């Protein structure tokens, strides 16, 4: 299997905490992460997600469903969290932020006013301080999401219907690969910064350490690749879903 489809290519798991590290270790491809999150959050006791000590949920925060706030994390007044959600130690969910079902916000993240996250993993140390959207995605550690950035997870080659029916595919080296999902946003590797206004097509893959710049139209991202690292293969360029043949 191409290494560029594995979680370890995009995210270095060490120090991200037991659940996130285990989650990444058990997933064969990055396309398996969403399903693994669902299994863990839907059965928190079996996944070891019932900590003895809890973090702070301020008066005025709206918390619905099963929301696990680890010790050292904080949900501020005016934030809205709809479980099942895991908020890891050191993370702050600020006033005006929205975190929705089946999301894991790893340690040390900062989620600000107007930011929305749904069905995604933010591995750790991520910054979303401005209005932006991350959905159905896997985001590496230390990623910075600029103002008005968005992933998109649904194909729009015909009128949109719910539930979605068309599988999202990615293209790597000219080969079309199915994700097995009808909604899939992006995989963004460690250390990437998305500049303001970047909009990513469904199935975008951005390798670790890549430099992204927003295009003038539609906000799709281009990547400028750093020198190859001896630890990893050269970063995967952004790829997007393709229409069926």
Quick recap:
This protein has three helices and 25 strands. It is mainly β and 245 residues long.
Please provide a written account of the structure.
There is one protein chain. It is built from three helices and 25 strands. The protein has helices spanning 7-10, 18-26, 33-42, and strands at residues 56-57, 62-64, 67-69, 74-75, 80-82, 85-87, 92-93, 98-99, 103-105, 110-111, 115-118, 121-122, 127-128, 132-135, 138-139, 144-145, 150-151, 169-172, 175-178, 186-188, 193-194, 199-200, 204-206, 211-214, 221-224. The strands form seven sheets. A seven-stranded parallel sheet has the order 3-6-9-12-15-20-23, covered by helices on one side. It starts with 6 loop residues before the first helix and ends in a 21-residue tail after the last strand.
Which labels suit this protein?
7-stranded parallel beta sheet; 245 residues; mainly beta; globular; 5-stranded parallel beta sheet
From the N-terminal CA to the C-terminal CA, the straight-line distance is 23 Å
User: Strand arrangement, largest sheet?
Assistant: 3-6-9-12-15-20-23
Total of DSSP H or I helical runs spanning 4+ residues: 3
Largest sheet: 7 strands, parallel
- Overall mean pLDDT stands at 88
Q: What sort of overall outline do the alpha carbons produce when their principal axes are compared?
A: globular
Report the uncertain regions. 216-245
Rounded to an integer in angstroms, the radius of gyration calculated over CA atoms is 17 Å
Structural class: mainly beta
SS strand fraction: 25-35%
Strands, total number: 25
- Helical content band: under 10%
Question: Oligomeric status of the shown chains?
Answer: single chain
Order of helices and strands: HHHEEEEEEEEEEEEEEEEEEEEEEEEE
């Amino acid at each position: 299997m191409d290494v560029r489809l594995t979680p370890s290519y995009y995210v270095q798991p060490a120090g991200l905490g037991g659940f996130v590290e285990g989650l990444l270790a058990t997933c064969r491809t990055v396309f398996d992460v969403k399903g693994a999150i669902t299994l863990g959050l839907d059965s928190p006791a079996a996944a070891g997600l019932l900590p003895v000590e809890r973090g702070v949920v301020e008066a005025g925060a709206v918390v619905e469903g099963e929301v696990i706030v680890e010790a050292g994390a904080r949900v501020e007044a005016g934030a809205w969290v709809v479980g099942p959600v895991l908020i890891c130690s050191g993370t702050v969910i600020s006033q005006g932020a929205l975190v929705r079902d089946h999301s894991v916000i790893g340690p040390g993240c900062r989620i600000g006013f107007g930011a929305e996250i749904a069905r995604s993993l933010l591995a750790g140390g991520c910054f979303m301080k401005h209005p932006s959207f991350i959905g159905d995605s896997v985001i590496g550690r230390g990623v910075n999401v600029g103002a008005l950035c968005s992933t998109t997870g649904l194909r729009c080659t015909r009128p949109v219907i719910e539930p979605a029916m068309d599988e999202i595919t990615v293209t790597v080296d000219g080969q079309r690969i199915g994700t097995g999902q009808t909604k899939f946003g992006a995989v963004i590797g460690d250390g990437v910064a998305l500049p303001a206004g970047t909009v990513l097509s469904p199935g975008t893959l951005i390798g670790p350490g890549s430099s992204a710049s927003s295009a003038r139209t539609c906000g799709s991202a281009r990547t400028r690749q750093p020198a190859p690292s001896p630890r990893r293969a050269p970063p995967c360029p952004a790829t997007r879903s393709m229409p069926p043949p």
